[in-house]
TrEMBL record:
<dbReference type="GO" id="GO:0004177">
    <property type="term" value="F:aminopeptidase activity"/>
</dbReference>
<dbReference type="GO" id="GO:0008235">
    <property type="term" value="F:metalloexopeptidase activity"/>
</dbReference>
<feature type="binding site">
    <location>
        <position position="425"/>
    </location>
    <ligand>
        <name>Zn(2+)</name>
    </ligand>
</feature>
<dbReference type="GO" id="GO:0008270">
    <property type="term" value="F:zinc ion binding"/>
</dbReference>
<keyword id="KW-0482">Metalloprotease</keyword>
<keyword id="KW-0031">Aminopeptidase</keyword>
<dbReference type="InterPro" id="IPR039461">
    <property type="entry name" value="Peptidase_M49"/>
</dbReference>
<dbReference type="InterPro" id="IPR005317">
    <property type="entry name" value="Dipeptidyl-peptase3"/>
</dbReference>
<keyword id="KW-0862">Zinc</keyword>
<dbReference type="GO" id="GO:0006508">
    <property type="term" value="P:proteolysis"/>
</dbReference>
<dbReference type="GO" id="GO:0008239">
    <property type="term" value="F:dipeptidyl-peptidase activity"/>
</dbReference>
<keyword id="KW-0645">Protease</keyword>
<keyword id="KW-0479">Metal-binding</keyword>
<comment type="similarity">
    <text>Belongs to the peptidase M49 family.</text>
</comment>
<feature type="active site">
    <location>
        <position position="421"/>
    </location>
</feature>
<feature type="binding site">
    <location>
        <position position="478"/>
    </location>
    <ligand>
        <name>Zn(2+)</name>
    </ligand>
</feature>
<dbReference type="Pfam" id="PF03571">
    <property type="entry name" value="Peptidase_M49"/>
</dbReference>
Amino acid sequence: MADAQYILPNDIGVSSLDCREAFRLLSPTERLYAHHLSRAAWYGGLAVLLQTSPEAPYIYALLSRLFRAQDPDQLRQHALAEGLTEEEYQEKLEHVILGSKAAQQNPAEVRSLWQTCGELMFSLEPRLRHLGLGKEGITTYFSGDCTMEDAKLAQDFLDSQNLSAYNTRLFKDVDQDGKPRYEVRLASVLGTESALHSEMTSRLKSYEFRGNHFQVTRGDYAPILQKVVEHLEKAKAYAANSRQEQMLAQYIESFTQGSIEAHKRGSRFWIQDKGPIVESYIGFIESYRDPFGSRGEFEGFVAMVNKAMSAKFECLVASAEQLLKELPWPPAFEKDKFLSPDFTSLDVLTFSGSGIPAGINIPNYDDLRQTEGFKNVSLGNVLAVAYATQREKLTFLEEDDKDLYIRWKGPSFDVQVGLHELLGHGSGKLFVQDEKGAFNFDQETVINPETGEQIQSWYRSGETWDSKFSTIASSYEECRAESVGLYLCLNPQVLEIFGFEGADAEDVIYVNWLNMVRAGLLALEFYTPEVSSWRQAHMQARFVILRVLLEAGEGLVTVTPTTGTDGRPDARVRLDRNKIRSVGKPALERFLRRLQVLKSTGDVAGGRALYEGYAAVTDAPPECFLTLRDTVLLRKESRKLIVQPNTRLEGSEVQLLEYEASAAGLIQSFSERFPEDGPELEEILTQLATADARFWKCPSEAPSGQA
Ligand SMILES: [Zn+2]
């Protein structure tokens, strides 16, 4: 089973990215802006195929062709009629492909595509399993013969010329004397020979660097970037303000000329465009997938403010003064004036690239982050997907909780997120003595409710929450925010803001608490017993809350090891909904007060003792958490696939096309992504891949008679 981590199960979970409400509330102009930015993102995202592996563009072309001729259902019927069983249909791809309608229409081309990528796409040869340089793995950011030494040398060269690696790839050749020659190729619409003078043209030439020959060229992904630029031009007409226009103009310049400096200028306008209704970012952004870590993967996203959700969040902020009084600490421990934290939640319409994050913190240019700042955005509908799951994959819940959980998970999550971000992180005061010795609290009258005494400790000038609580600061604070969410969701006024009353409100509360308890168990995946440490602040926080609620006793929460129908270890969590107010609330109240008092007074020793005590994972009965951790790992769901919608222009109106959460829905969303130029794009991708194919062929692998 050593290969298990490289094999996706056939029944992998698929979820849809739901942005219907946010899209519905956009104005016609905002929709047009979002549409053209989405088109630009999808076109540019195709470059990722060329940035991944030599076979990736061919796999894409083959599958596109296959599903354009027949949808998944027709293809399945066809295969079953040919005598394949359901199981074989999933596994015998060659038979399916060569018998498909696409192959009947274009036998030579489909066969050739299959021959190019058929074996490679299933190969588990160690070098082909993961990204890496040379013999270490596979990448197309570098030609196949580049090693870490070559990558370092190229980086030194780029640094010496003040060129960014973000939009480049490196190709190595050997000349007649056996001397290496390097090509640094920039991504751009224009080629190296272009006559138009720009800041870039003077950089496109030969260089000698430490006795090595370097040639800087451009034009990588040119036909793809051409389409990106066309749609950015169209989007410009619907920009909401001049900053967005100038931002797009700079991105167009960047993709046309191959200039990262222009992209930085665009990013500067982007940072200044605060709180737009339609948010986006596009370019060569994240460098995680470059084995050397400096080349950016193309990514483009378009996200929208969910105006309905924002209105609810604003309502929460407007009621903050009143709601903060409900929190279980004396008024002196609350800020003199409520300051709403900087929190933006957006729903993603489009995210092209190799994956979709649940939040973004960009730009990545350090110089810009220092001088201009950055944006920190939570992507609400992506977060929701992470928690959504099919009924049969819903682990650790009682059967009769599952339907309720599925029904109310989304709404209760919205309530929890709003409370966590706004009143959780936004609440509580730190007691501070400034550099002149003045206190921001009354030393005479303020009493510590835990000890009944005056305040004994506080933050001195220069000390901060993070500097004092260091290693536990972020998880402790997340725990405080999560606890505020659980505590305040019991408040009828809060639930009314979100539109819930009566029995519905009770269900929202129950599912919110049940989810926290289950999350506390799932969190064990993020604990490393070998070093007794937690790897994720939010997960640790949820485990701590589970411990607090277990400690409350009286049958409020139970975690029971069981045996699954497959005979292997399993577990059940139960929450007694009749005891949430009578047992759960007082326990959470005591805990939350202690968290806040220790935080306000900067009592690091007390805070550590409390927090680390609850966060400790042992095999002590009755829960035996270390053993439960093995069960959690055993029952862990594979990472889900996400189906994204498309947008389509009909006359002057933009339609949102949504797809079902299934493999067929996922395929359909891809098939309808490029309705006009699908075949042209497949041609472009395979031509670009073929033009560079020699860089990844071992001489010994080349068929005889071929150069
Ligand atoms: Zn938080």
